[in-house]
Amino acid sequence: MPKYFDFEVSLLSAELRMWRRFLLRQTATFRDLHSAIQDACGWEECHLYEFRESKGRQALARAPYQDPFDDSNTPTDTKVKLALHFTRKGSKCIYLYDFGDSWEHLVELKAVVDLPGKLKRKLVGGARAFPPEDCGGIWGYERCLAAVGAIKADDFDEIELEEAREWLGDWEPEAFDLEATQKDFDR
């Protein structure tokens, strides 16, 4: 029977806790984990990313980009199997997405489970919408929350909030539709 990692991913430093939980085959790479996080969280895969140790923050795997100044010898995410890092329940890492906005996600292994069948991944839970792409990091996310009335708007002027409301459209911070997201996520 195939084994699957049961991961929980949550955004760090956000006032409102948002998270996703999914199963990913144990033979997966860090690239598979990247793709799962992008799809589960509604990110648009527009930016560079890197996986780091949760303590010490040493790089584990990175996006396949060519940086002539990168002498870290960090392997690309397609070359590193998750099983090399996630060796037991409670194993963690940091997923840094968008080096400008610096979205840090905590990735935690909750369990290793056996399941019949041949699925590659399955979304099993979550809460709240993740911030809109390119909103400006945690400070920009707080502006988005203030614009839709989810937090106090003391630190923002009304013109700034009105511009944010126009840009956000129908984005709602509490919105997360598990079934709809599963349709695109599950494979």
List how many beta strands DSSP finds.
Answer: 7
Q: How would you sum up the major sheet?
A: 7 strands, antiparallel
Proper CATH architecture: Roll
CATH topology: Structural Genomics Hypothetical 15.5 Kd Protein In mrcA-pckA Intergenic Region, Chain A
Distance between the termini: 17 Å
- Oligomer kind: single chain
> How much of the residues is beta strand, in percent?
25-35%
- Give the helix proportion (percent range): 10-25%
Count of alpha and pi helical runs:
4
Notes on the protein architecture:
By secondary structure, the chain is an alpha+beta fold. It has one domain (3-130, 174-185): MM3350-like (Structural Genomics Hypothetical 15.5 Kd Protein In mrcA-pckA Intergenic Region, Chain A, Roll), CATH 3.10.290. The chain is built from 4 helices and 7 strands; from the N terminus they run ββαβββββααα. A 7-stranded antiparallel beta sheet has the order 4-3-5-6-1-2-7. The longest helix is centred in the first third of the chain and has 12 residues, at 30-41. The model has no long low-confidence stretch (mean pLDDT 94).
